[in-house]
Amino acid sequence: MALSIRDVQPHELDSVLALNNAAGSTILPLDSAALHALYEQASYFRLAEVDGHVAGFLPALREDADYGSPNFLWFRERYPAFVYIDRIVIAKPYRGLGLGRVFYADVTSYAETRVPLLACEVFLEPRDDISVLFHGTYGFQEVGQQTMLGVGRRVSLLAKTLCSFPFVRDTYLHEPGGRLPDLPWLAERSRTSALTPTRGARAAGGA
């Protein structure tokens, strides 16, 4: 099995939309406009390919995104700096291969050099025990619950403290204008990276 994790490209959004809307009741459906808005705001939007086929995707947003999700806004009201995982979708033929953990390791490596917290939610109505267990074993803890406006389903709001961030902040981001070393694995992983070269420095100010 040949696996690659890479940034989503604009011409692939139709495939991403189809994958999202075929995922089932644990993933909220999107229309094309909503997906493009998410793509515009995401600081991290990556896709998994298995043997050349689209197998899954994960978008995540920083705390300053212009994004109306009630769960994202819940975190923004309570935490000054975080990366919020909006959703993770794995195509049915590729479930059970560990792609969820691959994605979470990748988004964690992105987040832990920028913010102190990784955030997400899981549905409690209907209860998604697979997702609850997955997040619990990955170090997430419940920090709240709410019923989503307009959806009427209760969610558990989860957060994971990123223990590496204080070292990164104090070593590289503490001083005004501080930034991460210019290394490929530390680069922004989004189509907006060229437009936001100082985002790492802003992360230090918000922590």
SSE arrangement:
Elements: E1 3-7, H1 13-21, H2 32-41, E2 44-50, E3 53-62, H3 70-78, E4 83-85, E5 89-90, H4 99-111, E6 117-123, H5 129-137, E7 141-147, E8 154-161, H6 165-173, H7 199-206
The total of helices stands at 7
> What's the SSE pattern?
EHHEEHEEHEHEEHH
CATH superfamily descriptor of the domain at 3-62 and 81-117 and 162-206: Gcn5-related N-acetyltransferase (GNAT)
Q: How many DSSP E strands?
A: 8
Q: Write down the CATH class of the domain at 3-62 and 81-117 and 162-206.
A: Alpha Beta
**Level-2 CATH architecture of the domain at 3-62 and 81-117 and 162-206:** 3-Layer(aba) Sandwich
First-residue to last-residue Cα separation: 40 Å
Would you tell me the overall average pLDDT?
A: 89
Biggest β-sheet strands, sense, barrel: 8 strands, mixed
Radius of gyration: 16 Å
Percentage of residues in strands = 15-25%
Helicity, in percent?
25-40%
Structural class: alpha+beta
| Basic shape | globular
> Unreliable runs, pLDDT <50, ≥5 residues?
192-207
CATH topology of the domain at 3-62 and 81-117 and 162-206: Aminopeptidase
In terms of quaternary structure, what is this? Answer: single chain
InterPro entries: Acyl_CoA_acyltransferase, GNAT_dom
Organism: Dokdonella soli
Pfam family, one: Acetyltransf_1
Protein name: GNAT family N-acetyltransferase
